[in-house]
UniProtKB/TrEMBL annotation:
NCBIfam families listed in its UniProt record: HAD-SF-IIA (TIGR01460), PGP_euk (TIGR01452)
Organism classification: Eukaryota, Viridiplantae, Streptophyta, Embryophyta, Tracheophyta
InterPro entries given in the database record: HAD-SF_hydro_IIA, PGP_euk
UniProt similarity note: Belongs to the HAD-like hydrolase superfamily. CbbY/CbbZ/Gph/YieH family.
Protein name as catalogued: phosphoglycolate phosphatase
């Protein structure tokens, strides 16, 4: 009897019939077999798994009574999420060619490198694995991110290994043949403007409009450039009413004007001590005033994955996304068919991960990226 499981989910999707609430379930848990009754929850698999996963540090799988298999560990694959351990790490590492790392909350917090990151990256590279950085933070360009890596003591990272949402916004316009005679208005940082320029587009706005004021005057129109064909909204620490009005007019009044969001992160680790409002706040303001939904090019959209696949020529099943956010990093990996690893150094705590209402589960989770060093050195 074969068993297969959906990626990043604890729902059984193979020959086993759907398990309804109130149906007795047997749980294979190493050398123990326990019968449970599914709880009253919209996803009974999740509740049952959380109940049994702490019993022993061994794989656990749920089956209906009449389809309970032989107690063979090879035919009983573990359900997500698994705490990363010496037992399961080797299998994960051997099955992956490329590791995709988020940056904020995974590699660094603000301007502080997280302990052990540099050594971990060097060790992964020494084993012949590819290392790529996929960040939703659009404030910097890829060139500026490479400089940040160097300033934090990680000189081995090159611009070509960095895929930022600022780069994704420019590439979206490029692959969709955005007219070169059209301009792009930016609510965001210098990173977006630099990537637009590198791709051959004309950008305006950004930090330059940070000090401008929008004033209500009778019989006076707020002027905007009619040649703007796209508005890109990203993280903007200098967001103001002027930028919102300018962007809104472009989207609502310029025929065919695109509304592009680098990402919709609610918060981010802009400093090492606390979280700050993310690009999602700026995007939400524009959604409200334009009554439009944006084209999202950053995680969890799989738009950036097209470039990664083209660059490395590998299957997504041979990739592992390492991140600190469930709704962007982990969902991005799952949407693309990658393996997923959550680290707890950023916005997601273990209690967040395991709480009843959480519907996004990584394949694995661990405290910090540097745990990889200890696991690789384990006998």
């Amino acid at each position: 009897m074969s068993h297969s499981f959906s990626s990043g989910s604890s729902q059984i999707t193979s020959n086993t019939r759907e398990v309804h609430r109130g149906v007795p379930i047997k749980c294979w848990c190493g050398d123990e077999i326990t019968t449970f009754t599914s709880m009253k929850d919209e996803n009974p698999y999740r509740r049952l798994y959380i109940c049994v996963r702490g019993a022993k540090d061994v794989p656990s799988v749920l089956y209906q009574n009449d389809q309970f298999p032989e107690e063979d560990e090879d035919t009983c694959p573990p359900m997500a999420p698994q705490l990363l351990s010496a037992r399961n790490f080797k299998s994960l590492f051997d099955s992956v060619d490329t590791f995709l790392f988020d940056c904020d909350g995974v590699i660094w917090k603000g301007e502080t490198l997280i302990d052990g990151v540099s050594q971990t990256l060097d060790l992964i590279r020494s084993k012949g694995k590819n290392v790529v950085f996929v960040t939703n933070n659009s404030v910097k360009s890829r060139r500026q991110y490479a400089e940040k890596f160097r300033s934090l003591g990680v000189p081995s990272v090159t611009q070509d290994e960095i895929f930022s949402s600022s780069f994704a916004a420019a590439m979206y316009l490029k692959v969709n043949n955005f007219p070169k005679d059209k301009k792009v208005y930016v609510i965001g940082g210098e990173g977006v403007l630099e990537e637009l320029q590198t791709a051959g587009f004309t950008g305006l706005g950004g930090p330059e409009d940070g000090e401008k004021k929008a004033q209500w005057k009778s019989n006076c129109l707020f002027e905007h450039d009619k040649s703007v064909g796209a508005v890109v909204v990203g993280l903007d620490p200098n967001i103001n009413y002027y930028k919102l009005q300018y962007g809104t007019l472009c989207v609502r009044e310029n025929p065919g004007c695109l509304f592009i969001a680098t990402n919709r992160d609610a918060v981010g680790h802009m400093t090492d001590l606390q979280e700050w409002p993310g690009a999602g706040c700026m995007v939400a303001a524009m959604c409200g005033s334009t009554e439009r939904e944006p084209i999202v090019v950053g995680k969890p959209s799989t738009f950036m994955m097209d470039f990664l696949l083209q660059k490395f020529g590998t299957e997504t099943s041979r990739m592992c996304m390492v991140g600190d956010r469930l709704d962007t990093d982990i969902l991005f990996g799952q949407n693309a068919g990658c393996k997923t690893l959550l680290v707890l150094t950023g916005v997601t705590s273990e209690s967040n991960l395991l709480e009843k209402g959480n519907k996004i589960e990584p394949d694995y989770y661990t405290s910090t990226v540097s745990d990889i060093i200890k696991l690789m050195e384990s006998p």
